[in-house]
Amino acid sequence: MTSLPGGSDDADSATERQPLVCAGxxxxxxxxxxxxxxxxxxxxxxxFCDVCSRENLRAIEGRLDSSWW
Length: 69
What we know:
There is one protein chain. This protein has a domain at 9-18 and 31-68. Helix content is 30%, strand content 14%. It contains three helices and two strands. The chain has a two-stranded antiparallel ribbon with strand order 1-2. A hairpin with a 2-residue loop joins β1 and β2 (44-48). The protein starts with 8 loop residues before the first helix and ends in a 7-residue tail after the last helix.
């Protein structure tokens, strides 16, 4: 697993020990490496399951600079 810029390996290790919980619907991740999206809001990572990510795709894209799409 690689660290994000500014992140620490300790934070990543703590995340691996606990199952991820979707900030949108509360679903729990199945398996060690789910294909979820995440955002950093107010310095805190928030994870979103595939279903919530797909349902909110337009809102997610709307927050990106046009160079991303």
